Amino acid sequence: MNPEKIVSGLGKELTDALQAMGKTKDLQKKETYSRIVKNLSKSLASFFEMASDAEFYGYSYEGNDLDDDDLYPEGYKDENPDRDCPF
Asked: Are 59 and 70 in contact (CB under 8 A)?
């Protein structure tokens, strides 16, 4: 997971959608683009919230490659090593 790629990708998609929405004259297309912009904005906000929470709990993205084991509670994999989902 590279957070810089995620943020830049979401930002580019958001910029493209906003530009396309500004160029179109059709009301239905504008509504479609507004929904796309809303969803991309929510995705970006969710990512920033997750990054903020991870930073609060002591995870740092800079120079640290997090893997799936970092996301599970301590001893979780010991109970059932083949289990993938913590839920």
From this structure: yes
